[in-house]
Write a structure and sequence with these properties.
Layout: E1 3-8, H1 15-27, E2 30-36, H2 47-61, E3 69-72
Parallel strand pairs: 1-2, 2-3
Amino acid sequence: MRTAVYAGSFDPPTHGHLWMIERGLEMFDRLIVAIGSNPSKSYSFTVAARLDLLRESTAAELSCSWIPFVFAQPFATRRTPQLGVSK
């Protein structure tokens, strides 16, 4: 099973983000969307609000509610083995 992680701040989620999610779903067996938070940046939306916006957008736009979303601290690639992603 090929698993990929798409990490970003998604503040707010855009059509470009949804396009990337859609492409990732076509290319990989499993796609994990990781919402990042960088302490040196200021955000318009909280992580919880961004998570809700992404869930709503993917369910409406892509007709899928099964994409796993995770909260990722900076340097999300260091966490990929914990998420079942191999290099």
